[in-house]
Amino acid sequence: MNKKMKTEKQMMKLPVYAGILFSVLEIMMALYANSQAVLMDSIYDFAEAIVLGLIIFLIPLFYKPVSERKPFGYAQVESLLILGKGLLLIAVTIGLILANVQMLLHGGNTIDQQLIGYFEFGLAMISAIVLWLLTRMHKQVQAPLVEAEILGWKLDVFSSIGVGLAFFLGSLLDNSPLYWLSPYIDQIIAIIIALIMLPQPFHLIQESLKNLVLFAPEEEVMEEIKQCAQELFDDYAYEITFYDVIQTGRKLWIEIYIRSHSNMLNVAQLEQLKLRIEKGLHDRYEGVDVQISPDLIIK
């Protein structure tokens, strides 16, 4: 477990350093070119890097065993950080949307759109390199944080390409009948980026709140658990009557209630089933804890 923890910490340093590098480059370009769209990207990258850095600092807590005082360990700390990140991103995004709308109403902003286009394509190339490195490292350790970062960097590659193309197309307006639109392109692209990204923090808040209040996980997760358990229980004379599943952070607690057709329970069999279910789900979920209990309700 200590080796896995150290490997995960080392792996997560790459997106943190890359995120800081991106935010610095984007802030410099935003100040130089006076671009609101680049400023939007820089704020997102900076917020991502800060929260991810805090999570890396707290990774050792996620590997600590549960105790009587902390029955869920420190799994909910990760959810709290993600909740804070979601609230921060929503506040920043709404603020930037309002600022860009105000700028639109005051005549827009003329920028070097081709320069921004080349800059975004450069970011896309660097993002692709980071994505390739993360994908290779992910083969060593299956961790939810790494999976989330891989998805995030995939989005970064495509969004940078899309923004770059938008600015290149916008630069063509200078010599067209629509030249009057040119000063508004930067604000329009910034608002579009914000609206596209806005659902992401809402999703983060929704998922973190579900984890914090100990709701059952999504239906897809429940179905995967049920399928794994049922396939194993089919070989034994037990009937599953109820699933009690809690997911908080990266931890998954599963309690399966059963009835025996013979009114007898084989403790050795149940222990074997418990271990087989945990093994079956371990590749997909980290920190799986399975308990099998008799359903004592008499009907």
TrEMBL record:
It holds the Pfam family Cation_efflux. SUPFAM superfamilies: Cation efflux protein transmembrane domain-like (SSF161111). GO terms for cellular component: plasma membrane. Keywords: Membrane, Transmembrane, Transmembrane helix, Transport. Its main location: membrane. One of its GO terms (biological process) is intracellular zinc ion homeostasis. InterPro entries: Cation_efflux, Cation_efflux_TM, Cation_efflux_TMD_sf, CDF_Transporter. It comes from the Bacteria. It is found in: Membrane. Residues 20-213 form the Cation efflux protein transmembrane domain. It is a multi-pass membrane protein. The chain crosses the membrane at residues 43-63, 83-103, 115-134, 155-173, 179-198. GO terms for molecular function: cadmium ion transmembrane transporter activity; ferrous iron transmembrane transporter activity; zinc efflux antiporter activity. NCBIfam families: CDF. Belongs to the cation diffusion facilitator (CDF) transporter (TC 2.A.4) family. This is Cation diffusion facilitator family transporter. It comes from Longicatena caecimuris.
